[in-house]
Amino acid sequence: MEINTILILIFFFIVLMMGTPIAFCMLFIGFIGLSSVIGLIPALTFAKTTLYHSIANWLYICIPMFILMGNFASRSGIITDIYKFFNMWLGKLPGALAIVTIATSAMFAFATGSSLAATAVLGKICLPEMDRHNYKRKLSLGSIVAGGSLGNLIPPSIGLPLFGIITDQSIGKLLMAAILPGLIVSGLFIVVIIIMVKRKPELAPPIIEQVSISEKIASFKNVWGLFLIIVVVLGSIFTGIATVTEAASIGAFFSFLIFLQRKKFSWKTLKEILIDTGRTSSMIFFIIVSVTLFSRFLTFSGLTRYLGDLVITHRYIPPLFILLCIYIIFIFFGCLMDATSMMLILTPIFFPIITKLGFDPIWFGVMTVIWIEIGFLTPPVGMCCYVLKSVSNASLDEIFNSIYPFLLSWFIGVFLLTVFPEISLFLPKLMMGK
User: Fold this and answer.
1) Is the pLDDT higher at 134 or at 303?
2) Which end of the chain is more exposed for a tag (fewer CB within 10 A), N or C?
3) Is residue 290 within 8 Å of 27, Cβ to Cβ?
4) How many angstroms separate the CA atoms of 286 and 278, rounded?
5) With bands split at pLDDT 50, 70 and 90, how would you rate the model's confidence at 310?
6) Could you give the maximum distance between any two Cα atoms of the chain, in Å?
7) pLDDT for position 365
8) Cα gap 359→164, rounded to integer Å
9) What is the pTM of this model?
């Protein structure tokens, strides 16, 4: 690895800190780096072929399909019925509305795959309801932000396919691997809520409204469609009946049918959904193109090989210690950088190290997305916190002060998945048609 590579990487961080969008930054620096390593003309030729082939894969159609599915589900208004459904069934638990918020966000995550969208919707629906029942903001705000942070982990996550594309890993296995970790973290959030309310009952006054069994059973009629989408999409991937792309397309179609069935259709709304899907998908594909070129620069420069050889040379350093150092870097970047940028910058650097150490790449994909979710919460760049502020009358101080018990849940989840990686690898190993 030459001094030029180090200087270019320093220049990359300088350009990034100047506020340049991450995609433009990686594309620009990646091309400059390639030019310094292999020459200008070869770099132009290589860039032309790389930029095309990095996204010319029909498997990647799953990304716009998952986004379209989430947009239809979000615009159909089904999140309100999910909230009412869980409120009927879980209303007698300590801190019921906060627990209902977590359960609703987990279910909504199965339909959208977006942490920021989930936080915005939950903030509009759940916070007024918890305020009406005199819930303390320390609990209500924390549960909304924590629930929203599940959106990018529980499949269909956009982060997991993006990781799979960057590292050439199976997107289907990554999606399956995230299911149990997502449910475990959701369970940890609920445990934290119950402990908080048991210690300080004033955080969540009990709800005295009575709901009959017949009303509970009747509540299924408004949410069965979302349950069906989850079963069809994840079930078809798990059993091998459909590829990820086919399953995503089926999910988008079923979500569209729910959109029609709930009488939310209008040509204006459909146009807005398609434009938003196209805009978001274009942004993601441009990011993929940029990170591919940047990754090629890291490979040609010898940085990834150097880091891998460094790990092999220092075999006396325990792999868990190196993994802990990677975790600390994730925490540091999560506090200073938006989640997508963190993933795009760190994944090409850390992935070769992880594979050299013998860690499972699918497991590491889940862990990477988990650290991204933690980054959505941590100040000063916790994007979920800013989204909640934009849709509520809460201050940033209130929101940031409410997240710490839920951050503890995330860290417990990281510990469990690090000690017991089989938690995330169990379902991928059972998949048919691998």
Assistant:
1) 134
2) C
3) yes
4) 12
5) low
6) 74
7) 95
8) 16
9) 0.84
Per-domain boundaries in the chain: 54-265+302-430
The secondary structure of the chain, three-state, reads CCHHHHHHHHHHHHHHHCCCCHHHHHHHHHHHHHHHHHCHHHHHHHHHHHHHHCCCCHHHHHHHHHHHHHHHHHHCCHHHHHHHHHHHHHCCCCCHHHHHHHHHHHHHHHHHCCHHHHHHHHHHHHHHHHHHCCCCHHHHHHHHHHHHHHHHCCCCCCHHHHHHHHHCCCHHHHHHHCHHHHHHHHHHHHHHHHHHHHHCHHHCCCCCCCCCHHHHHHHHHHCHHHHHHHHHHHHHHHHCCCCHHHHHHHHHHHHHHHHHHCCCCCHHHHHHHHHHHHHHHHHHHHHHHHHHHHHHHHHHHCHHHHHHHHHHHCCCCCHHHHHHHHHHHHHHHHHHCCHHHHHHHHHHHHHHHHHHHCCCHHHHHHHHHHHHHHHCCCCCCCHHHHHHHHHCCCCHHHHHHHCHHHHHHHHHHHHHHHHCCHHHHHHHHHCCCC
- The tokens for 372 are 């991204």
